[in-house]
């Protein structure tokens, strides 16, 4: 492991431990965090590492350093603590896989609902994707997946999906490849015909190429 990767790993571990500490001690916005020395001892890391982590969190607006007064948890209206910390936590490969797995649960459930509901599987939007694939040769991957969730009418699932999909960034928000074209067409056609099993198989194959 190179030095940069090792430093990144240490930083992420400190952020995770800080998050746990804030939760366990029920530190509220505006309340003071333990000193660098105390954090260093409790987290089992050097003070310089703690200082760097705190400095980064301060730049993100998660904490505030008051001259001569210590470090405080920033007001909640300035940020979304869980969301911003998650950006760091999700640097961990297992966490990324967990998010991807959870996102796909919502997408597969949407395919099941659409395949089993005639009024949903016969909507013209699916034909429009077919036409786009034939004329332009590709479609935006994120657009299709988003449409699956929108079509089900489950607003809560859609909101959750948007949050999960945001962590995949450019991996989803791109045009499909030639290899994906036939797979996507198979998924859409199976879904339109009400063939749930075949639609899900095509979806799984598609996700294997993403």
From TrEMBL:
PANTHER family in the record: GNTR-FAMILY TRANSCRIPTIONAL REGULATOR, MANNOSYL-D-GLYCERATE TRANSPORT/METABOLISM SYSTEM REPRESSOR MNGR-RELATED
Higher taxonomy: Bacteria, Bacillati, Bacillota, Bacilli, Bacillales
SUPFAM superfamilies linked to this entry: Winged helix' DNA-binding domain
Keyword Transcription: yes
GO molecular function: DNA binding; DNA-binding transcription factor activity
UniProt keywords, alphabetically: DNA-binding, Transcription, Transcription regulation
InterPro entries in alphabetical order: Bact_HTH_transcr_reg, Tscrpt_reg_HTH_GntR, WH-like_DNA-bd_sf, WH_DNA-bd_sf
Gene Ontology BP terms: negative regulation of DNA-templated transcription
Coiled coil: none
Protein name per its UniProtKB record: GntR family transcriptional regulator
Domain HTH gntR-type intervals: 8-76
CDD domains: WHTH_GntR (cd07377)
Keyword Protein transport recorded: no
